[in-house]
Structure formats: C-alpha cells, structure tokens
Amino acid sequence: MSNLLKLFRDSSALYGNNAVYIEDLYEQYLENPDSVPESWREKFSKIQDKSKVDIPHSPIVERFEQLAISSPGRLAKLQGFTEESVKKQSAVARLINHYRVRGHQIAANNPLNKDIQIPSDLEPAYYGLAEPDMDTLFDAGTLYGVDRLPLREIIKTLKEIYCGSIGAEYMHIVDTESKRWIKNKLESSKPGLADNPEKQQWLLKQLTSAEGIEKHLHRKYVGQKRFSLEGGESLIPILDELIQRSGENNAKEVVIGMAHRGRLNVLVNILGKSPAALFGEFEGTHVSSPGVLTGDVKYHLGFSSNIATPGGPIHITLAFNPSHLEIINPVVEGSVKARQDRRGKGSIDTVIPVLIHGDAAFAGQGIVMETLNMSETRAFSTGGTVHIVINNQIGFTTSHPFDARSTLYCTDVANMIQAPVFHVNGDDPEAVLYVTQMALDYRMQFHKDVVIDLICYRRLGHNEADEPSTTQPMMYKQIKHHSSTRQLYAQKLIEAGIISEQDAQAMETDYQQKLDQQQVVSRPILGSEMYSYSQQWDIFLHSDWDSPADTRVALERIRYCNDKMQCLPAGFEMHPRVAKVMENRNKMAAGALPLDWGFAENLAYATLLLENHEVRLTGQDVGRGTFSHRHAILHNQINGESYIPLQHLDKNQARAQIFDSLLSEAGVLGFEYGYSSTEPNKLVVWEAQFGDFANGAQVVIDQFISSGETKWGRLSGLVMLLPHGFEGQGPEHSSARLERFLQLCADHNIQVCYPTTPAQIFHLLRRQLIRQYRKPLIVMSPKSLLRHKLAVSTLEDLTNGRFLTVIGEQDDIKPAEVSRLILCAGKIYYDLLEVRRQDELKHIAIVRIEQLYPFPDKLFRKELKKYPNLESIVWCQEEPKNQGAWYQSKHHFYNNLEKDITITYAGRAPSAAPAVGNFRTHIKEQRAVVHAALYGQNKGKQ
C-alpha cells in the first residue's frame, strides 16, 4: 500500500473521500484484476511488481490518514497489519503533522533564550504513544530521506527540523503544491555549511563587516544617530545571499525598501557606498546631488550600484525612505512593477522586490496590510516579494510586545495572503542562510510573497543617545552579557578547526584598516554603463514649468480614435446607458454635439497611445469613473466579459493599462508614485473615488509627492485626479482639500490645476507627457461639471487649442465698462456666470485661474491690463474661507497688481468641516456666495 500512496500521492483522485474509493478499487483488483478499468489495472500492476522487492508499509499520511482512522479494520486486513498497529501508525502520523503545524511555537530560535512551554498536543502521550513505543519502527514519511525510524528518532528529527533555530510556519497555506514544496525542502535536507568551509569563512567575513562598521562609527562619531544594526548583523548575509542567488536565477535587478534601522550598514557593506561619502555625511562636508535643495538625513538616503553575480551583473537599488517606516513598501512595489513592465512580458523574475521591516512596524502599520493585499492582484502584482523582518523583539525603547500587537507573532498579518514565514534565530547565521535560500527559491517557484522573521535583538537603544535599560532593565541586562553573532560564529568555526583565533582577529583588523583608508568594503562594484535607464531622466533636470508643448491633435486623428473606440467585438452588448454615451460620442466626433468631459479625457489617452506614449490609469472605479463619465472599460451584458477599447486602437500603439484598484488610497497611491518615479515616459494617473479620500494617503503626498525632489532629487510625473466640488453631498464628499496641496507648494515642486472645460483636461493630460517637464500634477477634477450644459468644448478647441493657465472673460463684455473683476477657480465659475447673465451685469468680468501653482504671473498680469477702469477685485470660492485657495494664493494676486486695489473675499465663512450636510442649507449658502461676489455683502438683490 505504501507504493500505492507514493504513486498516487500527487493525484487529485486521492483527495478527501476518494481515498476510500481507491482502496475499494484496489481490493477488487486483488480479487479479480479484470474487474477494474484497464487504466487502473496497469497502475496496480506496477505496484504489485514493486512490492515483490519491497514489503509495503503504509505511512498513513496526509490524504490516507482519515482512511486509517475511519476504517482501520479494512486497512489492516488489506496490509496484513493488526488493527492496533494501524492505530499506532496513525497516531504517529498525527504527531508528525502536528509538529509541522505547531513546531514553530516551541522552536529554539530566540537568541535571548526565552522560556518555552511545550503544549500538550506535541507530547506523544497526547496521541496514546508511550515509552514502550519509543523503540518501535514507524513510517517516518521520509524525514531526511529515511522511510522508517524508531519513534524516539522520529521525535528527535522533528525537533531538529521544526523546533531548532528555524520555526517554519507554513501549514496554514491552502495551496497543496506550495505547502508540499516547503515540507519536502525542510524534511529532505539539514541546514548548515559543514561541507563548505569556504562559505563558512565568507559568512564570518560578512558578520565581521556588519559588526565592524558599527564599531567604527560608534568610535569615530560618538553620540551621533546611526540606528545601529548591532544585534541583527545577520541581515547582511541575508541580503548578500539574496542578491547572489537572484543573479544565479538570471535576475537583472533587486529593489530594496527599508527604514533606517541598519540602513547605513546595508549601504556600505551591500551596495558599496564609499565610506568616505558616509563619513562626509556625518561630518557635514558632503555635496548634495543635482536637484536636491534641502537634502535629508543620511539614514533616509537611497543608493544604487551594480554587482557581479554567478548569473551576470545585477543592479541593486535601495529606495529613499522617510521616517514613516513602512510607507516605502508600496513605493518599492510600484518601482519594481515599472521596471518589470519596461523589460516586457515574462519579466517578473528579472526584477526582485525585497522589503525590510521592523517587528513593531510590520505588525502595527496598516500600509503593510494594504501592500500585502495588492501582491496578487492584476494591477499590482510583482511576482512575489521577499520580506525580511528585523525582529528586535521590542518596538520603540519603551514598547512591550503585548502592547505592540494582539497576535502571537509580529508577522501574523502575512497570514492573510498565506505567505510562509520562517522564524529564524539571528545568532545562527547558517540557519539564516538556509532559510534565505529557501525563501528566494519559493518566490521564484511560486511567484508569491515569503517572510523571513529574523529573530534578534537591539544591542543599543532606539538611537545611540537613548538608554534602553531605563524602561527594559531585564532585557538589557541579558543583552549586556550576550556575545555578538560574529563572536559566537567565530568561536564555532575555531572549535571546528575551520579557522584560528588569529584568522578571526585578522579579519576584523583588515576590515577596520579598509575603513580607515576609506576603501569600498563591499563586493566589488561594477561600472554604471550596464544600467542606462537612469539616464532617461536627464532631459527633465532643470526644465522650466512653462516650457512649450504642442498638444493639438488633427481632426482626422480625433475621429479615427473615436471610431476605433466604438468598434466592439462581435456579440458585445453594452448596457443601454453606456450605449447612449457611446452614441453621443459619435455625434461629438461628427461635430453634431458639444464635447463633454468623458469624450475629451478618453481622446487625450487615445491620442497619446497612438503617439507611442504608454498610459497607466488606476483607482477604485476608474474603468467606469465614479460618476459614470469615462467608460474606458466596457462590460458585456450577455456574459460579463470586459473590453478596453483603448487597448485596440492600432497594432502599433503603446500599451494602455487600466485597472480598477482595491479599496486602498495609501497603498495604491504609493505604488503609482513608485511607478511614476521610475518611468518618466508614461502617463501614470491615479484617481481618487472622491477627492476627499486622498487624505487617506497623506503620508505619500507629504513625504514623497510634494518633497521627494527637494529631499532626494527624485522626479515624478504622477497625475492625481481628485473629484472636487460642493454639490451638497456633505463634508466628506465635497472637498479634495485644495488648500493642503497649495500649502505644500514651493520651489516649483508640484502643479495644482483646476480645469473647467473638456478641452482643458484634454490639453492638460497631453501636456503632462509631451513637454519635457516632470513634476506631479494635482487636478481638482469635476463631478457635476461632467455633464453641465455650459462645461462643454468644441472640436476646434482640441485641434487648435492648448491648456490655458488663465481663462479670461468669454462673454461679450466690454473691457472699458468693467469696474468689478471676479477671480475664481473651478465649478463656482458656472454659478457666477449663470447669475451674471440672468441679471445682465455688464460691468462685471470673470477670470478663471486654471493653474493655481506654479502661478501664471505673466498671463495673470496680461489679463488684468485689459480692464483700465477697475474699482474692485473679488476672489470667489465655494470652499470655506480657511480652506480652498484663498489664504494660499492671495499673495500671488497682490504681487501682480499694478493699481492699489484691495482684493476682497467672497465665499463661505471659516469652518472646521469642509461642507454642511443638509442639501437645502448648501443651496442657500451657495447662492449667498454668488451674491456676495456679484453684488458685495450689502448691495444688490436680496
């Protein structure tokens, strides 16, 4: 029967209750071979042939275990066992399985030697096994390649595999293939390098480097923050092994994201940053890179280099990261996705993401969950990430694990995507190397995330000026007397005769001498000529925001694009409402209807694609558009299949990626920022479902989008579409917080625009990619204006126009008669326009500021000069006074005035909330705003 199991172990036919069926079939075969189908007869015949030289002993494992429990009598009869022996074997099988499930909970993988209580269900007695059974031979399931072992040896082997330096947590995985792969890896080979003394010496050398840089900095720069890796030095061999093994697997790039713990160590010992450059940063003598204005602290800086591997050169990137720890996760994933995309199809194994976490941050920060949740979605999958948790067993200096999380492990959030977790003792570098190899192999095999939980400690406080023993006296009393990982491993090699004490000391001395001489101490760094992608950003350095861009498109091209977007697969049935939208777009292309927003926006994407510019559009409802205006993804009402017309314009067009994203702001926006900061020649657009939701990604906006260039010299052309406008939908669905973006504006870091016509969004989106200028673009996009009867454009506006940063008066108003000028931005313009026309106020002109930053000073002054008899200027906005553009933009208005005219404010009163919740109150307020702008507070009609 053991051969039967071996032959059919991987067959789906053996799942669940099918096991009983197989057994019955086999019994029939034994009685009468002709009574079973020929295919099964052949298989059973092979088993019988093998059994002549191998008396079968059933392992009763996995799929047959239930058979043994439910029908031991029949199975015993079939195999010649006693019923008692079958029960015992079944008990052993359950014990083995329980070690796989729970062994990690009692693993000796904590370098600080915490007491471990063995649960009762890992005791043999729990399964009815006693001392007399200890020397009985049982089927061991090929532990370390041995079929049958005494129970005593089985338990000893299980403890070595599952309760030693490695605690493998993988039995929660539903996928049988990946779970079996891990089991076979763990149970077929032992960790260790006993047969590879050369590798052992290299491992010691890396630990010496990891410890050596910290000692050097501690001695040379007393009291300065460096966020030491001491206690977690095994991170350096992990990264080195990941990089070298990735190269063996023909990867071309590895992108690393990490917070500041151990960052300087990684920069010097892995990426090959010059110690001279690092020392200059400590001493304040370093020179910032081009484009960097403020710079950043040294433990936030990124770096890239090229390193030789057995599979060829590999490009290593360490992403810039602020102190917001895990926020780098989606940024790195987005950067990796961009790198994979530009390498073409089948490239997920060419670029490997590696994320390094802190234990408290991995458990505590929601962005970790958001990023994990993206890992296997169509829009955001990067083929699996290797996660490394530097588990100091303490969050901040004063934290306690029970206050830091509500879970057993800091890594339990990874269980949501069924990622395997290898909890490994940081003081056993050979075990660390073993799980590193297995983790990368798992990623390459299954293209899923995997976690290495490097259980270690932090020798010093949160920073080097901190005294941790004031709040953690017991832990740090133990750490004080605990030998370092390098010391422990050096002693192990000395005792094994691999090296001498003099060899170990020479390693340390040699490393310190290289640092003193400011030599590069990592693996040799290759030249930069093998990686040319970074040069594509050069043309955007020091460019000007008003550099010219011809965004016009010929009428024939517009009609061609529309025709192609109307061509649907045979049998494709649109929803009646969508069909009406598409019918209207045909009329717009023919000039029979004014152009609406959805038509113009889709044409912007289509024309860019035909000009060989790629487009990527993501957000929670971008296919349809939150307000059903875009319909870039169409859905067949017959079978539910989707179709993206923008992907079928021409066989030579550029790629269009349009994905409805998961319900995440911070994760998705961070991902798209990472993508856009890696790929300058692609229109990358993120749309918030409502503009208000952008505040769920405020860290990404503050730390990357608005300041990435100033701090790190990182450019990005990311577009954010934020639906904005006061429609009476309450505080949470009115404002995209325009004021917050304007407050972030300085040094020409971002663009903030509030377009009011379809032609404006058409030219604005095209301008973003066509001109040689890459800065993030923040767009206050419309809701009600999507279908407003006045918010329309003409075909000529697309064929002959351009994006207008300022739109002057459009009605037949005589400039000489204008005494009152209203300045505004966005939707309020149409409210003002309708009442002015209704009341025939010929002395009032209305000017729209479509680009609030960088402020278009020249065009604004040119517009003001048209009105020689101005008496008053009003800024009108629908947002409360403390919000919107008023406080952040009024200095631009005053700076460009040639007359001594006071600019007054017309709008809502200051408010703690963006808008009221009652629709009738909203209408009353809106009318009051318009009235105040047109007539003043105490004048005109009531």
Automatic annotation (TrEMBL):
Cofactors, names only: thiamine diphosphate
Q: Does this entry carry the keyword Coiled coil?
A: no
Q: What class of enzyme is it?
A: oxidoreductase
Check the record and name the InterPro entries matching this protein. Answer: 2-oxogl_dehyd_N (IPR032106), 2oxoglutarate_DH_E1 (IPR011603), DH_E1 (IPR001017), KGD_C_sf (IPR042179), ODO-1/KGD_C (IPR031717), THDP-binding (IPR029061), Transketolase-like_Pyr-bd (IPR005475)
The EC code for this enzyme is: 1.2.4.2
Residues annotated as domain Transketolase-like pyrimidine-binding: 595-788
SUPFAM superfamilies xref list: Thiamin diphosphate-binding fold (THDP-binding)
Q: What is the reaction catalyzed?
A: N(6)-[(R)-lipoyl]-L-lysyl-[protein] + 2-oxoglutarate + H(+) = N(6)-[(R)-S(8)-succinyldihydrolipoyl]-L-lysyl-[protein] + CO2
Answer yes or no on keyword Ubl conjugation: no
Membrane spanning residue stretches: none
Q: Which UniProt keywords apply?
A: Glycolysis, Oxidoreductase, Thiamine pyrophosphate
Q: Name one GO biological process term.
A: glycolytic process
> Which GO cellular component does the record give, naming just one?
cytosol
Which GO MF terms does the UniProt record name? oxoglutarate dehydrogenase (succinyl-transferring) activity; thiamine pyrophosphate binding
Short name of one Pfam family for this protein? Transket_pyr
- What is the protein's quaternary organization? Homodimer. Part of the 2-oxoglutarate dehydrogenase (OGDH) complex composed of E1 (2-oxoglutarate dehydrogenase), E2 (dihydrolipoamide succinyltransferase) and E3 (dihydrolipoamide dehydrogenase); the complex contains multiple copies of the three enzymatic components (E1, E2 and E3).
Q: What does this protein do?
A: E1 component of the 2-oxoglutarate dehydrogenase (OGDH) complex which catalyzes the decarboxylation of 2-oxoglutarate, the first step in the conversion of 2-oxoglutarate to succinyl-CoA and CO(2).
Which PANTHER family does the UniProt entry name for this protein?
2-OXOADIPATE DEHYDROGENASE COMPLEX COMPONENT E1, 2-OXOGLUTARATE DEHYDROGENASE
Which family, according to UniProt?
Belongs to the alpha-ketoglutarate dehydrogenase family.
Its name, as the record gives it, is 2-oxoglutarate dehydrogenase E1 component
Q: Which organism is it from?
A: Methylomarinum roseum
